C-alpha cells in the first residue's frame, strides 16, 4: 500500500482556501484534524481543521495519486450525500466553492471543504450501539432509494487500485503459501503482528471460500467503508449519531456490503461485551428484516462478503511488513479495524440471530 506524504503546509492550505472558498481566512486557526485526540485513520489524505468566523470546518486534501478518482466522481458524491440528508441521514454536506463547485483540484490534488462535527466515536454503551445500528440501516435504506441513474453513472467511476493484488483468492493463496511462513520466521513486534493477522486469515479461509461459492448479490450504490470511526455520536441522551463520515468509497457493489460493515462495526463498538454484541446483532437482523433491508438467509452471507472485501488490504499490508520493509503506524490500526478473528465471531452471532 502507498503511504501518503505529509499534509501540505499551513501556507499552502491558506492559499487554497483564499483562492477557492469565500472567507475571511486570514485569521483562521489551522491544525491537523484529530478525533477524540487521535489522527483519523487514513493513509491517503491530509485533513485540516479550520476554525474561524465561518465556524469549524475540515479541508480534505487527497495526497496519494493512486487514490484520486475521476473528476466526475465528486458531483456524484455530492448528489448522494444530499439525497441521504433529505432522508434524515446525518451525512456532512460539502461546502461549495465560491463558484458553486463541490470541490477543486489544486496542484493536481483534489480538495474539499465540509463542516467539522463535534461528535465522538462510540464508546460501546448500549444506547450508542443501538443508535449506530439504526443510522446504518437508515443509510442503507436511503441508498436503496437512489434513482437508478446514479448507480449507472457511479459504475463508470471505479474504485482506485490501492493494492498489488485485488483478486482475493490469489491474495489468500499468497498469504497462506508465502507470507505466513516468512512472517513466522521473522522476529520483533511487526513480524508478530503480521503473523497474527495472517493466521487469522488462514483460519477464516472456509468462510472466505463461501463468499466465492455463494450467489451474486444485487448490485447497488454502497458507502463501502462503514467502520467505527465513520460514525460520530453527539453528547447526552438519548444517544444519536450526528455525523456519518467519508463517502469517498462510494461505488457499485453487492448492497449487502454496507450491512456487513454495520454488523462488524456494531460488534467492534461493543468491545469485550459479548452479551451486548449478541443483542446488537440480533437487533440489526430483526430490524433489517422488518424494514425489508435483509432477507432470510442474508445474514450468513455478510461476513464472508466483508472478509473477501478486506482480505486484499490485509495481505498488502503484510507484504509491506514482510517483503517491502514499509512500516507505518497505521498498519497496526488497520489490523485491528479489519480483524478476521472478530469477523468470524460476528458470523457466528449473525447465524445465531438468523435462526433455523
Tell me about this structure:
The protein has 356 residues and is an alpha+beta fold. 49% of the residues lie in helices and 13% in strands. The chain contains 12 helices and 10 strands. The strands form 3 sheets. A 5-stranded antiparallel sheet has the order 1-2-3-5-4, with helices on one face. A 3-stranded antiparallel sheet has the order 6-8-9, covered by helices on one side. It has a two-stranded antiparallel ribbon with strand order 7-10. Strand 8 and strand 9 form a beta hairpin. Helix 3 runs parallel beside helix 9. The protein is globular. The N and C termini lie far apart (42 Å). The N terminus is likely disordered.
In the predicted model, the low-confidence regions spanning at least 5 consecutive residues are 2-7
Order of strands across the widest beta sheet? 1-2-3-5-4
Helical run tally: 12
Mean pLDDT: 91
* Beta-strand residue percentage: 5-15%
Count the beta strands. 10
Structural class by secondary-structure content: alpha+beta
Shape: globular
- Characterize the main sheet: 5 strands, antiparallel
Order of secondary-structure elements: HEEEHEEEHHHHHEEEEHHHHH
What is the oligomeric state here? single chain
Q: Roughly how many Å is the radius of gyration?
A: 20 Å
The span between the termini is 42 Å
What fraction, in percent, of the residue positions are helical? 40-55%
